[in-house]
Amino acid sequence: MRRIRVLVVDDSVVARRLLSDAIASDPALEVVGTASHGGIALKKLPLLNPDIVTMDIEMPEMDGLAALAEIRKLDRKLPVVMVSSLTERGAAATLDALALGASDYVTKPTSASGVAGRDQMLAELVAKLKAFGGGPTAMHPATHPLARHQPLAAPPARTTTTATNRRRIDVVAIAISTGGPNALAEMIPQLPGDFPVPILIVQHMPPLFTKLLADRLAARSAAAVKEAAAGDKLQAGTVYIAPGNHHMLVHRTGPSVSIVLDQGPPENSCRPAADVLLRSVAEVYGPGTLAVVMTGMGHDGLAGCRAIRQQGGQVFAQDEQSSTIWGMPGFVVEAGLADEILSLGALPAAIVRRAAVGRGLPLSIAGGRG
Fold this sequence. Notes:
- This protein is of the alpha/beta class.
- The chain folds into 2 domains: 4-138, 3-Layer(aba) Sandwich (Rossmann fold); 141-356, Methylesterase CheB, C-terminal domain (Rossmann fold), CATH 3.40.50.180.
- It is built from 11 helices and 14 strands.
- Helix 2 (38-48) runs parallel beside helix 3, helix 3 packs parallel to helix 4 (88-100) and helix 8 packs parallel to helix 9.
- The longest helix has 19 residues, at 114-132.
- It is elongated, with a radius of gyration of 21 Å.
């Protein structure tokens, strides 16, 4: 089988060697070249014809953002995975890179994370290179045993955009990962400021990144958007994003529901994990839950959607065509758990329509703040 051709771009000799050795150790990948800054990478692209590029952000002469912008002028589809630092500056630059068209990112380990942190980052990078390059880890959910052969306690879902389930909902819980920042930037600003229920989001991102993501969405949205804090009482029309490195749950005390954060073990190699949130909202809100599973690698959210369906709740899944990676929503669809399968463009209006059911509200999507 033809190996996936990777160009590694980083100004550090040590980092180039580390990344190249990890990539070359996987039989599905090969390093076809390296570059010490973006200008050299641009010259090598037509000569090496890589299938995918890893791009450091902070480099001399031409940094990763400038190089990415030039690459996108030449090729809109070439996958580029950014390698960023786990700092506020690195987080901001990474979100800028995603907005410019980067496919995904990994964060460099801090000195405190040691060998384990380094190995985790390298494993994550290799998995993403294989997924975007069409390698074995990009296995279609239909072929994966997790998606099938697990009996559903509730009746099978209707995987159709004409679902007739019209129960009132009291919360929206969104599970999202790879491709998520751009998808959320398209969807959340379209939700109205008077949205009648709270919205909880697990986006797989590290600390600092989730706060910056929330701030950027808040600046563009009619609805209030914030990084969740422990003890927050859920309010209608507010979007709560789980903070990096913390699971987010909900707890009911009398008529009010509040946010609980913990640092329990990662699930599906994630913290925050969507399954943790979805199980929690299923327990607290039962049939009043609407789960929305969007673009992302892996199967986080599958078990949580199963719990929601068992409690009588509803599930939307993003379709394959509009997903950056159809992993998380694909597993939900293949397991028969999706009430509706919707494009990214159709999701805001569908969520608004569902939230209006049982309330007699003339809700409509918003235009955002530009």
